[in-house]
Specification:
The chain is α/β, with parallel strands linked by helices. Helix content is 44%, strand content 15%. A hairpin with a 2-residue loop joins strand 2 and strand 3.
Amino acid sequence: MKEADGTRKNIMITIAACALFVLCAVLLSLFSRTSEDSANGHIRRKTIKISQEEQQYAAYQEEHPEWTKYNLLEENFDAFSAYYSSGAQMHLFDNLSDSQVLQTLGTDSTENIFSSSIVSGRKVFTLTPGEGYDTVILFIHGGGFIHNLQPAQLVFCDKLASRTGAKIYIPDYETASPTETGKYKNAYKLLENVYDNILSENKPVIVSGDSAGGGLAAGFVCYLRDTGKTLPDGTILVSPWLDISMSNPQLQEYESKDILLAPYGLIEAGRWWAGGTDTKDPMLSPLFADVSGLCPVLVFTGTDEILYQDILDYCGKLSAAGVDTVLVTGKGLYHDFALSSELPEGQKSLEIMTGFIKQCVEA
């Protein structure tokens, strides 16, 4: 009997010790999270873990060779400029025709009604859900300000329209080159005119963009505030390029991880986009903008992209200014992963976007 009591006593001690260990771990986790939230201005964080092996993504990357054009060594500046001066690749999708868009979307697979119009001399594509809509999204495409609208971005917008039931406007703004610089002024004019048309529909509005388009979207929302226009109900930024001067010294820490982007080509592309304007001007690099008084912002970033630290700094700045900020971090993921709707991480991102839009509309 004494032996049984001793065994029972040892078991109870072991259970109590395990419970205490679990409790300490939970408290430590809560303390760490509280410290992190405090340091980052109470940013609401979500994490998406990578489920794809790097070699699996390599095959996907081969389907998008245009995304590798920024991976150039510093000594190749002249070759970079010469390559884009030819215009052969840079304007591959310039003045994209309606038939090309329909071919990209697949008339049998899309549920949305496609149309296009001309605003400020540029094509503006529209995807409208067949059963009507109660929200409008302005999507500003990326491409380093040197590539026009790409098929992958069109496919993403088609899926976003189907998922959210929102009407989506996609302006195909002018891009830059060594001989065509300072195009950002035309882009802002185009976006303003498109936005005015959107406001006339009297529907909730979301402004969104990816990569360079994400940075442009962030700058445009600040422009709307500064000019006294009605702000959108929310902003969605996917891997936004927030500082075209690429001046963050921490970029070098992420360059070896990034499978898509390198700073050297981006610096040059940023100069072409800016023309003679300072590349740290807030309209060009919203990382340096006053972000007070903005609408709620949802931001996506991969931990393995060179823009990661700038995006973290920007989210901290938003939160410190009292802006409702949600940061979605793709652990081990690459630039613009949230647009990859054929991957699990992209599908999860689409789900998060849908929930965010619903919250903004119902607020």
